[in-house]
Amino acid sequence: MKYISTRGGPQELSFLEILLAGLAPDGGLYMPKSYPQISKKTLDQWRSLSYADLAVEILQLFSDDIPLEDLKVIAHKTYTAKVYCHGRQYDNANDITPIHWLGNEFGTEIGLLSLSNGPTLAFKDMAMQLLGNLFEYVLAQQNRELNILGATSGDTGSAAEYAMRGKRGIKVFMLSPSGKMSAFQCAQMYSLQDTNIFNIVIEGVFDDAQDIVKAVSNDLNFKSAYKIGTVNSINWARVVAQVVYYFAGYLRATSSSEEKVSFCVPSGNFGNVCAGHIARMMGLPIQKLIVATNENDVLDEFFKTGHYRARKSAETFHTSSPSMDISKASNFERFVFDWLGRDGALVKQLFAQVETEGGFDYSGHPAKKMIEQFGFVSGKSTHENRLNTIQQVSRVYGVVIDTHTADGVKVAREYLEPHVKMLVLETALPVKFSETIEEALGYLPERPDAFIGIEELPQRVYEMKPEVLAIKEFIVRHTR
Ligand SMILES: *Cc1c(COP(=O)(O)O)cnc(C)c1O
User: Fold this and answer.
1) What are the residue numbers of the active site?
2) Which of 94, 123, 149, 257 is within CB 3.0–4.6 Å of 115 for a Cys-Cys bond?
């Protein structure tokens, strides 16, 4: 399998060649040159596979430069019941991503695809845990080291740290803004005592942290001298790891590969639902891919109107589903590439226009009609919708869902079709957003055993001023 850039650059690279890369040299994102096609017969053969074996089948199609035996070891080390046992307790925990059926609404079975039982209780663990093992594997093979630099306001940083802790050849420098995360989120990250993890708390807000990461990464000499890398959501390996659970969800939800299933995905940077798009392009019988947004509705606006209008920071709302608070969706370019017939020159022009004019408008264009041929529809949800949905799902089905999943359930209900099962992706567990759960239900959500008392654990952080030079010096000192 070769990978090409969405902006038409001439390079064709292999999986291992793009594993540690960020953007392509022309500023585009890497995409497979073609999509492997999965027949109904193959799908049926996959029905009996464990999650790890299913992951091997799918990943090997995209990473043919990793020997199959090695890939098997990596997948079986990653997708174990022990790694994914931290959240809700299921009888079928070996499924890794069990389905929690809620019930039948207007002739449609609606269920939660449970993706949040990994160590940080959010779906990002599904891909990040694999990334940690892939990185360790390739770094050892090439006798290299990597220093991951990132900024976080919550979920990504903790998922990265729990994936990279204790990994040989890897250090993580994670910047987080002082006093902006919940006590639970702070405890999760700051209580890690692994010597390869450095939590740097800076005065300021998330954007200050993000600016420092950009400044350090843009210093190309420093970047190469200190082997700086990232794990952000445009990383192809993260996207492809997520393709696996669309197949797993489909196979668990159906008994025949003639059936179709719809997926509703709480979305921010479009990484999660992009994986659904790829699964569908591979032939997985997906009826609809429903993009659910919160008040930050740049994607809902696009899928409804064909007008992509990135927001300014001042127009980006701080909401109670904070992991979906984005102003532009970094993986969206991957869909645009397929949607516009893989015309790299056109994609390049459109995303240059996003930088100069803030977006592009296809509302009157014939291509607008093509969006639905890719199965995409969308909807949005507000704080009040979240509260109502959390209350209603708790009352009727006895399940407490988190705020992001609530956005998904709310929007999924706008697209129910008789006899097409609907899976809503459960992207986090309620304990991570307990303030809003308490607002909705009047009590705090149940805390999984492993997390009782984590706020009392000793914390290890480095407090620093938001200064690029100081952060660079810190990295230099700790990578000797
Ligand atoms: C990251 C995240 C999302 C958004 O996922 P994208 O891949 O960025 O679209 C949704 N919910 C939760 C809980 C998340 O952590």
Assistant:
1) 124
2) 123
